[in-house]
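User: Teach me something about this protein's shape.
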Amino acid sequence: MEYVLVLAVGLIAGTLGGVVGFGSSIMLMPVLMFTFGPREAVPIMAIASVMANLSRVLAWWRDIDWRAVGAYSVTAVPGAALGAHTLLVLPPRIVELALGVFFIGVIVGRRLLASRGVRVTRLHLALVGAFVGFLTGIVVSTGPITVPIFLAYGLVKGAFIATEAAGSLAVYLTKAIVFRTFGALPADIVVQGLIIGASLMVGAFVAKRFVISLPPERFRLLMDAVLLLSGVALLWIALR
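Assistant: First, the predicted structure itself:
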């Protein structure tokens, strides 16, 4: 019954994440912590996140902006390796508390960037990648941080989902490799992550039909709603 609950939430989270490009980890993490405990939940989610982002890449392969992915990943990957190693010796609660407040503030930030016509370049993506990669190595998810950046770069709908997923895939693969190297990713955790990740993958392909028919402005409003949910969820996890 525990797996049924986790897989059901995983399907819902994968569908929502497939629509807006992030949010799966935030929705699924509380359930994983309740079911498996906090020590096991983080590496399980790392494996599941790899599969979730891989499914978005496969679903929107033709829409990926590979130059943006390269600019972001060149600094995000080493940042994630450093952050994942830091996670093994640093309690993440303070970071999650700060990120919860930040995610809610991103809603205002995205609108300010859009209203002023600020255009993000690949250099900006590289600078942000180092910061986001490090934080992603420490906490469960930092997907909402990249939302205003990739949107300001000019991506929307499938192109945004695919490009953000490709960059995140490199980051989460790095995080999983570091966990495995330091013994925090035993075989049973890998299997559990693969099972749960499968439900996220199904959700991503279910979501594609909704994204195609979704107007760009409604897509942005939906992302604002998930940003708010993400911020509240992280604050709850940090203060529980």
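Now, about its shape. DSSP finds ten helices and no strands in the chain. The longest helix spans residues 187-212. If you'd like, I can walk through any region in more detail.
User: That's plenty for now, thanks!
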